[in-house]
Amino acid sequence: MTEPRWTPYAVLVAIALLAALPLMTGSNYIVGIAISGLIFLTAAAALNLVYGYAGQLSFAQLGFWGVGGYCAAIAVVDLGQSFWFGIAFAGVVNLLLSVVIGIVITRTTRHAFVVVTLTFALLAGLIARDWVGVTRGPLGIPGLPPPSLMGFAFDTGARFYYIALVFALIALAFLYSLKTSRIGLILKAIKQNDPLVESQGIAPGPYKLAAFVIASVITGMAGGIYAFNLKVIDPSFLDFYYMQTFLIIVIIGGAGSFWAVVLAGAAMVVLPEALRFSNELRMVIYGVVLVAVMMFMPRGVAGWLEDRRIAALRKALR
Amino acid sequence: MRKLCRGNEQRAFIGKLTRRSRSPRLTGTVFSLSKHLSRRQTRDAMEVSATYLLQLLMNGLMLGLIYALIAVGLALIFGVLEVINFAHGELLMLGGYAMALTLPLVGLSYWPSLLVAVIVTSLVGVVLYEVFLRHIGQKEFERSILTTLGISMILLYGMQYLFTATPMMVDTAYGFDGVQIGSIRITLTRLIAGALSVAAFTGLYCLLRFTQFGRAMRAIAQNREAALMVGIKPRHVARNAVALAAALCGLAGAALAPIQLLHPAMGQAMIFKAFALVVIGGLGNMTGAVVVAIALGMIESWIGGFFSIVWQEGAIFVIMIVAVLLRPDGLFKRGSMRVG
Lengths: 318, 340
Description:
Chain A: Keywords: Cell membrane, Membrane, Transmembrane, Transmembrane helix. The complex is a heterodimer. Chain A is mainly alpha-helical.
């Protein structure tokens, strides 16, 4: 879908508003929601790269999210490094891990791909629970210290917010430039017609692997930052709930469209807060939303809008 | 006689040891002694644990048969509809809950509640197909996964809202009675579960092999267009397949309910293993699913008997990763839906 001409201005306004958000409200609650929102949004945008562009429905993102969170926490608590080292460490570990896994699973059929990535995520959860020597098992690692930079401690919600904001902006900018680059175009082509891409002399394997690895690194770093936002990490960090949230953001926005996913992320962060009355009912509503979207607009809001536009064009031409 | 011999051996060994211990290489002897003793101890433990091994084997077999019931349903749905059913575990859970809720009504009697559970889940299967799966096309693989994932969320959290996440104990008229076969003890509910699975497989085999109903299902799985050409209605066949798979799952859940604790997330824990089984066996291959399920039930039980619980849970995933690495299409060929 082509972007409207006013997109850059809208983005600038949004960034300005986001940057001013902690100044506009004194409420820790709202800032807290905004932090989660930015981090979830980034993870969802990374999932969009794998699922939306490369067309591979990966549940492994949950595993990378958890691995990132644990790596960052362990680097700070056990290795005595800084928060920034922890995030970088999370990125590097995820890079290595996703290359190893990616080489194996990009060879499989797309059916097996789903199942294998899913099992990786579950295996990560099991390891988090059972490898007590490193992860502390079900107790988790509590009391993660607030990050600090040159003596400045990001110890309040409003200060931590800027870490999340800067990370989200960098990651989204990177994903956006990737999307508009040649690599993004090739990924899109791979999703649409694999054999045709091969006939053009392009091997799809490395591109799929690259998308998988980049998404994993971003998701892992997002997980690391989120763990420090929670100030504690335990096996519930690998709860399937996070994967469902990322997926729903991508699905509602429309897999494969950048801005729609970003907007859906913002919307889906507000919705759970409005539905705070019961955790179970909130998940039921998530499920209903997922099924409804799949039934009535399988390509998300973006796909639905595009279909409408094409229908209008056809009507005008007739 | 053997015992005597070994006694002599031991005495001779100790004599040798005392003689050698006067030599300056003391550490070496101590080392060899401890090594020798530990080897002897494990050998004794092995002899004693022949029954333990058999016990583990029986438990594993029962577990494997239950896994196979779930996996075979998944393979059936995949073979006919090309859909991986994420809500399959929730069907299992519904079967268990149907059993648990009916049991007090019929005076803890096992068989009527089992029947109720199977009927309820197969009806849920029909609804699932008619309302949701029917609208999903052959090529829309991701859409089918996400739809069934949504259904699974609705069922799982809906049940959790209604019945809370607290595990339920299910008591039947059989209680915790057991049977003694040789030196192995096995509870009656487990034995019935195993027997039921075997009966279900036999029934399923005959159904797919000898009835028109089953032939149509295999025909669709083999070649959709050709099946259409000879007048088979894919919609009816697919509905039957989903209902049949759901009934098998309900049977598994109902059989499982008196064996382990019942809670809304029990389906999720089982279904992920069932996915792994189906992938190892070859997607859509029912024989493969059954064989791999039984084998893995036993492997899991043995690992659980000798190592810590981590390995028991992790084994299946490690085996799957290795299997997919070596044979991306599964151990058994995906030659449509093979029966026999």
